[in-house]
Design goal:
It contains 11 helices and no strands. It is mainly α and about 220 residues long. GO terms for molecular function: DNA-binding transcription factor activity; transcription cis-regulatory region binding.
Length: about 220
């Protein structure tokens, strides 16, 4: 059998992960079999097991792929011209633009994480990465004076993660949920927490007034 090129192997691996996502979202982790995924991906069992030995391996591959994509998006946040707008855009991507089955899959993996130690470890690793990444973004923004948040960046990251979890759950289980209507309200809530600093207003802010005694002394010295 001729050896497949690396790019062909990569594309096949991606196709398997795509098929596994759809199967897990449609039928759940336990009802989905490796045979179902083979059929969905249009490959033989041998072609599947070259890349993934189990359903847990598939979950690990799915979550790592999603983590890498999120990492790339988060890497741009610290240098975004408007942090709040960038966060809003991130929320729009994950709640409005991604297909519905992706959110169902997140809920399915989260539920399986409560029963399956292997999946639980995978889930918590990615969840920790997300929270720590947001914490670093908020800490850097506060240090640079871009936000005037009063709360610890760790707590801010925890709250933002909770909001994201809630959005995923609502979109997954409530067909009537209107994320487009809710997002602007959530953005205002996050704005109250972060307290973004407007660079233009900071630039024209007058210097603090001198105390009366110091001002009088300065005038007296100037008159001499």
């Amino acid at each position: 059998m001729p050896k497949l090129k690396p790019e062909t192997l990569r594309q096949r691996r991606e196709s398997i992960l795509d098929a596994a996502e759809r199967c897990f979202a449609r039928s759940g982790f336990h009802r989905t079999t490796m045979q179902h995924i083979c059929k969905e991906a249009g490959i033989s069992p041998g072609g599947l097991y070259v890349h993934f030995a189990s359903k847990e391996d598939l979950i690990a591959g799915i979550t790592e792929r999603d983590r890498a994509k999120l990492a790339a998006k988060l890497a741009d946040l610290p240098d975004a011209p408007d942090l709040l707008t960038a966060l809003s855009r991130l929320g729009e991507h994950y709640t409005l633009e991604e297909p519905h089955y992706k959110r169902v899959l997140c809920v399915e993996i989260g539920c399986e994480a409560t029963r399956n130690p292997a999946v639980g470890e995978i889930y918590r690793t990615v969840d920790t990465f997300c929270r720590q990444s947001f914490e670093q973004v908020f800490a850097k923004a506060r240090e640079s004076g871009r936000i005037a948040a009063e709360d610890d960046p760790r707590l801010l990251a925890e709250v933002v993660s909770l909001i994201g979890d809630g959005l995923f759950w609502r979109r997954a289980v409530h067909p009537e949920f209107n994320a487009q209507e809710v997002l602007p309200v959530l953005v205002r809530m996050v704005s109250e927490l972060l307290k973004p600093v407007d660079p233009a207003k900071e630039a024209v802010r007058p210097p603090p007034a001198k105390p009366a005694k110091k001002a009088a002394r300065a005038r007296a010295e100037a008159a001499q």
